[in-house]
Amino acid sequence: MVIHMTEPSPTSDGPMDKLERINRAQIRAGQDWIRGRGLTLQQAFVLNYLTDHSGAMQREIAEATQTTPANISGVLRVLQSRGLIERRTDEGDDRSKRVFATPDGVALLAGRDDAMAAVDDRLLSPLSSSEQATLDELLGRIAAALD
Q: Which residue intervals define the domain HTH marR-type in the entry (predicted)?
């Protein structure tokens, strides 16, 4: 079978394409929420990481973000200049600094989980609760098969 460029692919609206569209909508909503707080995605990730890993070392943050300590240094500098994080020197080792989210940094991310839950609710709103449960069960089976 020959497929012309103007014709949609026979699989262009298959289940995985639909999941991808849903995922993109969810990601876009998250990015909009982050940008609304004046953060880049990387800054938000680092700040969120620090709310869960208070006192992390720069090296640990770099590993968590899968980037270099030098790159993270720039991100931390911006966050620190905004008063969202602070760096503290370890006692007895002036070269070793731990990084903490400040109360302002924590407050900036407050409500994120609720906002993302509202996005999920909106995305799933065309489905009844029974259909949502079925979708969850089916996707769970697919996810389990990946392991």
A: 1-144
pLDDT digits (tens, 9 = 90+) for 20-52: 999 999 999 999 999 999 999 999 999 999 999
For 66-83, write each residue's pLDDT tens digit.
999 889 999 999 999 999
Domain boundaries, the chain: 33-111
For 13, list phi and psi in degrees, rounded to 5. Answer: -125, 35
Alpha-carbon dihedral 45, 51, 57, 62, rounded to 10 degrees: -10
Separation of alpha carbons 137 and 142, rounded Å? 9
Amino acid in the structure at residue 7? E
What CA–CA distance (Å, rounded) separates 19 from 25?
10
Instruction: Please check whether residue 43 is in contact with residue 35, taking contact to mean a CB–CB distance below 8 angstroms.
Output: no
Which residue type, as a one-letter code, is found at position 113?
D
- Asked whether the predicted pLDDT for residue 96 surpasses 90, the reply is no
